[in-house]
Amino acid sequence: QVQLVESGGGLVQAGGSLRLSCAASGRSRGSYMMAWFRQAPGKEREFVAAVSWSGGYTYYTDSVKGRFTISRDNAKNTVYLQMNSLKPEDTAVYYCAVAARASTSSGQYDYWGQGTQVTVSS
């Protein structure tokens, strides 16, 4: 079992920045992908970004490219999401997730955090 705890969400004005963190604990076998998803009210959960075990490979959904940066610190078992130039449409609950291999599909992720709310005001 892997436990994931997100933090760093909050209320920010459009154009502002936030940094999300997700700390992982528990047992995991081998290397794994860490990712961020988000879910806005009335919408399905969507992929935001993912990072490989080494940190050498990153993946982003088109709407956040150039604004968000995902990174990880394996010594701390933590993944980060730096979010800059935030827009009202970024408002959602952001979830951290872990998978055995790279994927943008939520169904491939085995463990999930409880989520952290990000609200961007216009």
Q: Low-confidence stretches at least 5 residues in length (pLDDT < 50)? A: none
What is the CA-based Rg, rounded? Answer: 13 Å
Oligomer: single chain
Strand content bin: over 45%
- Total strand segments: 11
Termini gap? 40 Å
Short description, anyone?
The protein has strands spanning 2-7, 10-13, 18-26, 33-39, 46-51, 58-60, 68-73, 78-83, 92-99, 109-112, 116-121. The chain is mainly beta and 122 residues long.
Give your account of this protein's structure.
The chain is an all-beta fold. It is 0% helix and 53% strand. The chain is built from no helices and eleven strands. Strands 2, 4, 5, 6, 9, 10 and 11 form a seven-stranded mixed sheet that branches. It is globular, with a radius of gyration of 13 Å. 30% of the residues are buried.
List keywords for this structure.
122 residues, mainly beta, globular
Secondary-structure blueprint of this entry?
Elements: E1 2-7, E2 10-13, E3 18-26, E4 33-39, E5 46-51, E6 58-60, E7 68-73, E8 78-83, E9 92-99, E10 109-112, E11 116-121
Parallel strand pairs: 2-11
Antiparallel strand pairs: 1-3, 3-8, 4-5, 4-9, 5-6, 7-8, 9-10, 9-11
